[in-house]
Amino acid sequence: MTTKTARELAETYFTSWEAGDFDTLRELLAEDVDFVGALGTASGVEEALAGLKGLGQVLEKIDVKVRVAEGSEVITWFDLCTSVAPPTPTANWMHVEDGKVARIRVTFDPCALLAGFEKRS
């Protein structure tokens, strides 16, 4: 099996998440993946998948605007389109080690999403 580049891993990560394919996502993430984002943090593959599944319940589309990769680093700029808020401009940075996503940092303004979640409750 050929090892994917960091860019290919990022592309697969986003298409899998958008499709709700969490088995493929699990294969992409390092066991000790470290996630820090606007809505929380996660340590390890199980916590990271739980967070992705949670947001996945309202995820409609990931509209990628640009992806920049250099070596083991990838930044993806996209609109996070959900059923509870207008499209949210989002930046996602990933670091890849040994062919797996090891670190993820995500930043966006969470206000509209949080308000949307509150309305659903």
TrEMBL record:
Name the UniProt record assigns to this protein: Nuclear transport factor 2 family protein
Originating organism: Streptomyces populi
Ranges of residues in domain SnoaL-like: 11-104
Pfam family, one: SnoaL_2
Domain of life: Bacteria
